[in-house]
Amino acid sequence: SSAYCGNGPEKLARAERLFLQSGRMLLARNGIRNTLVSLQEAVKNLDAHMLTMEMGKNCGVCAALPGGGCCSAYMGHENNDVLQLLMNMLAGVAVSCVRDDEVDCCFLAENGCILSFKPIFCLNYLCERIQKESTVAALAVLEERTGRLLRIQVELEGLIISALQSS
After folding, report:
1. What gap in Å lies between CA 112 and CA 49, rounded to an integer?
2. The pLDDT value given to residue 59
């Protein structure tokens, strides 16, 4: 339960401890390494599709407004968890808190989220504007690629939990 409680900096500190204590052991496991590669490929596929949908441009319009930013900016401390931060570290992401205003997500930088593997809400939420400005076909591909990424992310989390419990 401590993997899911606390604010962003507290979860990051726990993830860093886990990475220092168990990172090598986790990366030595073929299943974890292979799943990380699959997850990184799923991220690339989703990012490429989001680019074709011009989601960055559309989201940038809202981000430029007063109080704008990531649609889930105010949910940042609740969205992420220790295992997700650990997965990012295992993939070589330099995870750090880039904000400390205790309101916005601490992983939300000027150009977007620094995490490769993001919380479910951050990937699943589609504002009304995106829904209206996208074709049904584009939204279907987005949903399929997001679902694939999240399935692999859950698989990796399970492998990490099993490895940590058996060590």
Report:
1. 17
2. 65
